[in-house]
Design brief:
This protein folds into 3 domains: 47-245, Jelly Rolls; 252-342, Immunoglobulins (Immunoglobulin-like, Sandwich); 349-434, Sandwich (Immunoglobulin-like), CATH 2.60.40. The protein contains 3 helices and 35 strands. The chain has helices spanning 2-40, 47-54, 430-434; strands at residues 74-82, 85-88, 96-97, 103-105, 108-112, 117-123, 126-130, 134-138, 142-144, 149-165, 172-178, 183-187, 194-200, 206-212, 215-219, 222-226, 230-234, 244-245, 252-254, 259-263, 270-274, 282-288, 298-302, 306-309, 316-325, 328-332, 336-342, 349-352, 358-359, 361-369, 374-377, 380-382, 389-396, 399-408, 414-424. The longest helix is centred in the first third of the chain and has 39 residues, at 2-40. The termini are far apart.
Length: 435
């Protein structure tokens, strides 16, 4: 009996020791694996670390952009982010979502997906807009104090990029854009704001359109100047093509600037129209809630000289159109605005119906209503004065007359007032004496 007990105890100790050894081996393997993983895949810098280490103050949303930072690797700020935009810092292995106001440091990559866009801001007057399906890498911002110049480099791997550049406090900014086809230098010196647009095509050639200012292209050691209102195609295997003139800016025809659309439930269809431009192969219309078009609600290309939108939000919207000639984009036409207002409140309506019996025949019906409405009495439309007052002659037959007054506003809301009026042939009314 004692021998059997000792054997059981020895067996229990052996199994316990085996279990402990197994746990130790698993733990050691796990630590070794995590060490190898950490060495092979370094952890990316988080936004919190970037903000904490660089003393970065994100710009407030307002009329002016103010950026304060002491980080030498800081280059720019993501000022606007629309839909799906990704970003990846230099030492990160995976892409992460991009947030408005986040800093962009040296070698920071930004990628916009289908239907998305983002605005990169260097300061209050120098910004680049990344179009959809675009991948760019932001490089270090170099300063040359002697010449009051700053130079930023942007590598565009695919997609489209547009920008506006202007001197700030006497200091100019030059953006060097590097593509597979060549390098483009866009300076902001001078009194004219630089406005340009770049598209990288599937064959890695690029089309540069300069609407204001100028640019310089470097291709295999050769330089080519691009003047304002010109467009040029840059190839990988041959010199750039001869610069072509940009198509003219379209003239907007409808709706008129400041047109207001009121609706009750569903927004109305708004027809945007413009005059045709010679040599244009198409047009591009943009809608934005801000006049500077920093945020784009819609950007659509069409071969027609009109565009109909049937689902605009209730807000003030700005719109503009530019002409296209193949891959070339011309300057935008004048900016106009439209206002959509959702209104479910009936208009005001007060009618001074007579009390008691009145004389049959003609009488003057008076009252006040909301200015600008349509006024109907017994289905007949009548005018309302600019101050909202109205005086409408009506004819009463002997007996009971039912008078119905309807006020209809631009959104389709209606207000009603009705009264039974007893008319006799031998009672003089105060209204008739007033006439």
């Amino acid at each position: 009996m004692a021998g059997r007990f000792e054997a059981t105890v020895r067996d229990l100790f052996a199994r316990t020791a085996e279990l402990v050894v197994s746990l130790v081996v698993v733990l050691v393997c796990f630590l070794v694996f995590m060490t190898i993983l950490g060495l092979s895949f370094p952890e990316g810098t988080t936004l919190a670390q970037l903000v904490g280490s660089s003393s970065f103050s994100p710009p407030s949303v307002g009329r002016e952009i103010v950026i304060e930072t002491d980080d030498e690797s800081f280059v720019a700020v993501l000022w606007q982010v629309e839909r799906r935009v990704q970003q990846k810092s230099q030492d990160a292995i995976a892409w992460d979502s991009a947030d408005m106001g986040m800093p962009l440091n040296d070698r920071h990559a930004v990628q916009s997906l289908s239907g998305a866009s983002a605005t990169v801001v260097f300061d209050k007057k120098n910004r680049l807009k990344i179009g959809e399906n675009t991948l760019v890498v932001i490089r270090r911002l170099n300063r040359q104090p002697r010449h009051d110049q700053r130079k930023a480099t942007v590598v565009v791997l695919n997609g489209s990029l547009s920008g506006t550049l202007a001197p700030v406090d006497g200091e100019s900014t030059t953006v060097n854009i590097v593509t597979e086809a060549g390098e483009i230098s866009v300076p902001s010196g001078g009194s004219t704001e630089v406005d340009f647009d770049l598209q990288v095509h599937e064959d890695q050639s690029s089309t540069l359109s300069v609407r204001n200012g100028g640019a310089e292209i470097t291709w295999q050691g050769q330089t080519f100047q691009v003047e304002p209102n010109k467009s040029i195609r840059i190839f990988t295997d041959r010199p750039p093509a001869v610069a072509d003139s940009l198509p003219a800016a379209p003239r907007a025809t409808a709706p008129q600037d400041g047109t207001r659309y009121a609706y009750r439930v569903f927004p109305p269809e708004v027809r945007f129209a413009w005059a045709a431009v010679p040599q244009a192969t198409g047009y591009r219309i943009e809608l934005s809630p801000t006049r500077d078009f920093a945020k784009t609600l819609l950007a659509r290309e069409t071969a027609m000289t009109e565009f109909i939108h049937g689902n605009m939000p209730a807000d003030k919207m700005y719109w503009r159109v530019q002409a296209l000639n193949g891959d070339t984009r011309g300057p935008f036409g004048s900016i106009r605005s439209v206002v959509l207002e959702q209104d479910s409140e009936p208009p005001t309506l007060e009618v001074a119906f007579p009390s008691g019996k009145v004389a049959a025949g003609e009488m003057l019906l008076q009252g006040t209503a909301e200015p600008g409405i349509e006024l109907y009495v017994d289905s007949t439309r009548h005018e309302v004065h600019s101050d909202g007052t109205f005086e409408i002659p009506i004819r009463l037959e002997p007996g009971v007359n039912i008078v119905v007054v309807e006020a209809l506003d631009a959104a389709g809301n209606a207000a009603y007032a009705a009264q039974r009026i007893h008319a006799t042939s031998n009672v003089a009314s105060a209204t008739q004496r007033k006439r």
